[in-house]
Amino acid sequence: MEVIAASTDTIRLSFLMALLRDAGLDPVLLDQNIAATEGNIGMFPRRIAVASADAAQARRILQDAGEA
C-alpha cells in the first residue's frame, strides 16, 4: 500500500475517495480511529492509500482532477 493523499478535510477526503473508486481503484482511508481519539477536531490528517501497483494511476487521477 502507498499513501497518495492526506488531509484533515473530511469533505475533500470523501471526494478523493469517490474519484478513485469511480476509476475502478480500491482506496483505503487510514487513521479513521484517530478521529474518535481527538474528538473530530481535525488536528490529525487522515490518509488515503492504494495498492502499490495502482499508486501511479491514482496519482494521475488526482492530478487530472487538480487535487495533487
Automatic annotation (TrEMBL):
Any coiled-coil regions, as ranges: none
Domain DUF2007 residue range list: 4-65
Pfam families: DUF2007 (PF09413)
Signal peptide range: none
Protein name as it appears in the record: DUF2007 domain-containing protein
